Amino acid sequence: MNHSVVSEFVFLGLTNSWAMQLLLFIFSLLFYFSSMMGNLVIVFTVTLDAHLHSPMYFFLASLSVIDMAFCSITAPKMISDIFKKHKTISFWACLTQIFFSHAVGGAEMVLLIAMAFDRYVAICKPLHYLTIMSPRMCLYSLVISCITGLLHSMVQLVFVVDLPFCGPNIFDSFYCDLPRLLRLACTNTQDLEFMVTVNSGLISVGSFVLLVISYVFILFTVRKHSSGGVAKALSTLSAHVTVVILFFGPLMFFYTWPSPTSNLDKYLAIFDAFITPFLNPVIYTFRNKDMKVAMRRLCIRVVHYGKIS
Fold this sequence. Notes:
The chain has helices at about 20-50, 55-80, 90-125, 130, 135-155, 180-185, 190-225, 230-255, 265-285, 290-309, and strands spanning about 10, 85-90, 170.
């Protein structure tokens, strides 16, 4: 850090058009507020409704907490910067943003794998479900996902903090990301860029492939034991598959595409930061009968307590 003279980075943002900025501000604020409220509703519903105290809903509530953290890393900064002509972020705030983005993203990868394992046990080994997916097992899975995310992020940033940054300091984006940051260093970072591709790219692609294989294995197992259970299994897994595609699609593009400086990654980042956290509660709520019934019970209780008070 003795060689670093850059104290802040400048974001170019997405557009200089005032009309587009206004539209982007309304869009971002609406989706950020909706995703936070939707995920909060899921967390409170699962926590307060005794009928949802099961492994599947424990993981669903955990996913909602992670989604709220994930969209809060870059969204508030982006919203506050939309109308600013000079969009800046300090050096350490940029590193902090990158650290939490990778930590929370890595935790969500492992959590989605744990959710896939939960569905495998529930569908393929229903008689042993409560034994295998015990509260201790669920808690261990959550702790492992958090530790994995932190290690994944620390392994990358430990090599970045000592890089010299002497200019330029411009990000053609609205947030800090690791590939763009490495290209601003005043030294050769090809080895580090390759490490990031291996660490983030292969982990995201590998996790995605592992999840797809697990879902295919579940369907084959169900078909082997019961031809009529395939439709039910597809209905159960469709929500999980949709969430996995929405989450991993942009990530695989960010870290495996040969030209990460293209403008497409900025718009995919908006999708990952705003739309995916919003769609997750929508997908799991409207496709889950138990969640809809529990939310109805919660609304009745809130109205009842409101009348009493």
